[in-house]
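step=encode ok
step=design start
structure_in=
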């Protein structure tokens, strides 16, 4: 089931292992991400709006690190041009299994037909990006080793058609230590308000240490420009979570 409540870190753990997108996480993922990432639902909804604006006829769309397919579903319900498809990639088999069944239900909900989706189990760094009009990296780049991020963005820029868009959402860090501390505090308050205990917040934080590595918005902007995007800026931010639009 993928609609259960996340209580994975509710009980004290002696040894906190690095965070993994396994079966336990997949089974609570929609609840976990909604209660943990401020603005997640807005970003997903606006991904549909961006698909309507940017997806071109006869092109591919990519959802890299698709988890249970939320961005894919938002895109496919708003693509208005013919002959488009979506390649949705994740390297967690547990996530993809759930994603597959969610997509089957989505297919059944729209008898008149939606853009087809190809689900790929693999590393987003190994996927070839071709003839793309829209690529989504919704909270995925943050899990790629820092020194490998530029290369992935380069390959995305190379595979995008002129006028194509990359939507990059990330947890971000701040250079000013006082602001950094404030953003972390406000994020933790958001999680508390959503029912997470201090123990859950601190154990999850330890599990994500070295697994999720945030960088500043400036580093992200510079990297996108270096990768070949001509127009880059933030379209959404809430505390230390932001989403950028990068146009080829
Ligand atoms: C959403 N975009 O709901 N290759 C493939 N998949 C990866 C890799 C990699 N190298 N690294 C991590 N993942 C989704 C949410 S979650 C964000 C994305 C979060 C996958 C990983 O298995 C997980 O499913 C996803 O990226 C990150 O809009 O949980 O903070």
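sequence_out=
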């Amino acid at each position: 089931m993928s609609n259960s409540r996340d209580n994975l870190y509710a009980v004290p753990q002696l040894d906190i292992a690095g965070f993994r997108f396994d079966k336990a996480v997949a089974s609570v993922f929609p609840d976990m991400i909604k209660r943990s990432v401020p603005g997640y639902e807005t970003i997903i909804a606006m991904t549909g709006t961006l698909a309507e604006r940017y997806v071109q006829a006869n092109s591919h769309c990519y959802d890299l690190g698709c988890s249970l397919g939320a961005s894919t579903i938002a895109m496919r319900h708003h693509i208005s041009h013919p002959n488009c498809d979506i390649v949705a990639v994740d390297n967690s088999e547990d996530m993809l299994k759930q994603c597959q069944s969610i997509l089957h239900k989505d297919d059944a909900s729209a008898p008149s037909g939606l853009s087809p989706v190809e689900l790929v189990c693999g590393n987003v760094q190994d996927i070839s990006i071709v003839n793309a009009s829209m690529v989504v990296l919704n909270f995925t780049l943050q899990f790629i080793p820092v020194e490998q991020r530029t290369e992935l963005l380069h390959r995305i820029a190379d595979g995008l058609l002129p006028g194509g868009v990359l939507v990059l959402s990330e947890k971000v860090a701040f250079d000013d230590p006082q602001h950094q501390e404030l953003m972390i505090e406000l994020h933790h308050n958001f999680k508390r308000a959503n029912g997470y205990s201090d123990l859950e917040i601190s154990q999850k934080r330890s599990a994500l240490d070295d697994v999720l590595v945030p960088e500043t918005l400036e580093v992200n902007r510079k990297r996108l420009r270096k990768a070949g995007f001509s127009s880059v800026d933030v379209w959404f931010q809430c505390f230390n979570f932001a989403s950028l639009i990068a146009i080829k």
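step=design ok
step=annotate ok -> Strands lie at 60-64, 85-90, 117-121, 132-138, 160-173, 215-216, 231-238, 241-247.
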